[in-house]
Amino acid sequence: MIDRSYIGHQLPAFDVPVEAGRLRFFAKATGQTDPLYTDEAAARAAGHPGLLAPPTFLFCLEMESPDPAAIRNLLNMDYRRLLHGEQQFTYHAPVHAGDTLRFTQRIEDIYDKKGGALEFVVRRTHVQNQHGTPVAELRCVSVLRNG
């Protein structure tokens, strides 16, 4: 069983720059056709300071953590029994090329179902820009299969 005493545990915050080339690449890879994600002139004409980050792009930046496996290692979760259960994004402000984002990850909950056969770890990540403005909250649920 995963140690429930880690509920509320916060990992060290980390910063990631938002680069225009990565935004364009992600937009292309995910089939985004809106020029706000790929054409800087179009983004500026629409009132943005630079290219706009496409939906779900922040998940990629979260993987830039100094240790992307930190929670898994902390909770002693065997990756061979680990499943991606759920992912949710709540946006508060737009993210643009040139921003530097700070990610703060916290273990929000740990619970089980089916008599402990499945254990769930809920991670919430607060994201703010270089001005301290909250831009998003990311929620991810991992599922550990036991037995």
Description:
The structure is a single chain. This protein has 147 residues and is of the alpha+beta class. The chain has one domain (7-145): Thiol Ester Dehydrase, Chain A, CATH 3.10.129. 18% of the residues lie in helices and 35% in strands. The chain has helices at 20-29, 40-45, 57-62, 70-74; strands spanning 14-17, 82-91, 100-113, 118-128, 134-145. Strands 1-3-4-5-2 form a 5-stranded antiparallel β-sheet.
Question: Structural class, judged by helices and strands?
Answer: alpha+beta
H and E order: EHHHHEEEE
Report the principal-axis shape: elongated
What share of the residues does DSSP label as strand, in percent? 25-35%
Number of domains: 1
Low-confidence stretches: none
Question: How many DSSP helices?
Answer: 4
> Could you say what the CATH architecture is?
Roll
Helix content: 10-25%
Q: In CATH's first tier, which class applies?
A: Alpha Beta
| DSSP strand tally | 5
For the CA atoms, what is the radius of gyration? 17 Å
Distance N terminus to C terminus? 11 Å
- The CATH superfamily title: Hotdog Thioesterase
Calculate the mean pLDDT score and round it.
96
Order of neighbouring strands in the sheet with most strands: 1-3-4-5-2
- Describe the sheet with the most strands: 5 strands, antiparallel
Q: What are its keywords?
A:
alpha+beta, 35% strand, 4 helices, elongated, 147 residues, Thiol Ester Dehydrase, Chain A, five-stranded antiparallel sheet
